[in-house]
Automatic annotation (TrEMBL):
Gene: gatA
Function: Allows the formation of correctly charged Gln-tRNA(Gln) through the transamidation of misacylated Glu-tRNA(Gln) in organisms which lack glutaminyl-tRNA synthetase. The reaction takes place in the presence of glutamine and ATP through an activated gamma-phospho-Glu-tRNA(Gln).
Lineage: Bacteria, Bacillati, Actinomycetota, Actinomycetes, Kitasatosporales
GO molecular function: ATP binding; glutaminyl-tRNA synthase (glutamine-hydrolyzing) activity; transferase activity
GO terms, biological process: translation
Catalytic activity: L-glutamyl-tRNA(Gln) + L-glutamine + ATP + H2O = L-glutaminyl-tRNA(Gln) + L-glutamate + ADP + phosphate + H(+)
This protein's name: Glutamyl-tRNA(Gln) amidotransferase subunit A
Annotated source species: Streptomyces morookaense (Streptoverticillium morookaense)
Cellular component GO terms, alphabetical: glutamyl-tRNA(Gln) amidotransferase complex
Amino acid sequence: AHLARIDAVDEKVHAFLHVDREGALAQARAVDEKRARGEKLGPLAGVPLALKDIFTTEGIPTTVGSKILEGWIPPYDATLTKRLKDADVVILGKTNMDEFAMGSSTENSAYGPTGNPWDLTKIPGGSGGGSSAALASYEAPLAIGTDTGGSIRQPAAVTGTVGVKPTYGAVSRYGMVAFSSSLDQGGPCARTVLDAALLHEVIAGHDPLDSTSIDAPVPPVVEAARNGSVAGMRVGVVKQFRGEGYQAGVLQRFDESVELLRELGAEIVEVDCPSFDLALAAYYLIAPSECSSNLARFDGLRYGLRTGDDGTRSAEDVTALTREAGFGPEVKRRVMLGTYALSSGYYDAYYGSAQKVRTLITRDFEKAFEQVDVLVSPTTPTTAFAIGERADDPMAMYLADLCTIPTNLAGNAAMSLPCGLAPEDGLPVGLQIIAPAMKDDRLYKVGAAVE
Ligand code: GLN
C-alpha cells in the first residue's frame, strides 16, 4: 500500500531519492514467512520506513543529497540501518535532503527540492525534508532523520509531524555520513509521539563502533509515551525564544500550548538563558569548521564522482576538479568558512570563541534544569516559507534554526510535535520540548500529554 502511495504522489512531493521496491517487498515477504514459521518477530515487524539518504545501506545508493556521491553504493550498513533490519522494519527507500545535511529547506539537494505536502509551493524544512514530507503525505508511517542544528525538528514542525533529536550519543553515528561530528545525531520521525518512541527504542543504544556512543540503558521512552502526563511538573518558558522575527500565529499557538500545559497541572516558570542569543553565531563557526575537516575525505579518489582524470593531470588537480564539480554552493561556502576559521592566527578568535560560547550555553541549560523539568518553545520562528524565498539569502535560511541550535550545542534532547495551524496561513506550527541529557523519556511524557 505504501509503495502504491509513493507511486501516486511522489512525482509531485519528491520525498524519495531512491525507492527500493524489490528490497522492500523482499523484506515484507521475509517477515510474512517468519510469522508463518512461528519465529519470533522484531519489535517493528513489517512496518515500512523512509530512511534519510545520509545512512549507509549495503547495496543501495547513498548520496547524502550530493553529486559527489552520485552512483556510490556502500559496501556496508550503518549501525542504525542494521538495527532497523534486525527489528524487521521494511525500508522503503532513501529520502531527499539538503546536500550533506546543510540547510533548512531541502533546496540544497543536488537532486531538486521536495514539496511540503500541506502546500507543494512551500518548503518541507531541512535538511531532512524528504523524511518529514514522506510522513505528512502518508508515503511512510515512520522515518529517520538526523539533527545537527535542527534538521529533524524543523522539518517536523513545518510538516505537522513529530521529530526527536535524542541526547547526543544515544543513536550510533557509525555509517551516518559526517557533517559536524560533535553535533550530528540521528533520531526518529513519525506522525505520533508513541510511534516516535517505538522507533526511538529500536535505534538507540550503545555501539562500540561509535566512540561517542553512550554506554548506558536507553531511557524508558515507550513507557513514557504510553503514560503522558505533566501533573506536578515544572515547565520552563525560555525568555529568549520570542520577539522580533517570530510570526504572530506561531506565538499564538505556542502560548495556547503553554496554557494547555498549565491546565493539565504543570507549573509554568519563565527562565532566562542569555547565552542562547549567541548560539546561532557559535554554531555557524563550529559546524563549518568540523565540516571542512570531515569533507576532506571526498577527494575524487576514494568515493563516487571523479572529474578530469584523463591521464595527464595530477591527483591534486583531479581532487580540485572533482570537488569543484561535485559540491554545491552551500557546501563550498561552509568548507571555505570552516577552513578560514580553523587556520592558524584565526583559530582562537573564531573557533576558540565559539567553543567558549558553547560552554556558556551548556551552563544556561544546566541552570535552567535546576529550576524546571523541561523547557518549551516554538520549534521555528515561522511556518513553512515558499520554495525559493530564502534560497539566495543564507542568513535568512540560518534563522530557521534559531530555537533548535542551542540543544545541539549542549548535547541534550528535544522533540518537536504539532500544536495547531497558524491562523494567517493555515500551515502547521511546531511545539518544541527540551529535556536534560539522558532524560529523553521526559520529552515523550510531556509530548503524549499535550498531543
Ligand atoms: N539548518 C542547519 C544547517 O544548515 C541544521 C542542519 C542540520 O541539522 N543538519 O546547518
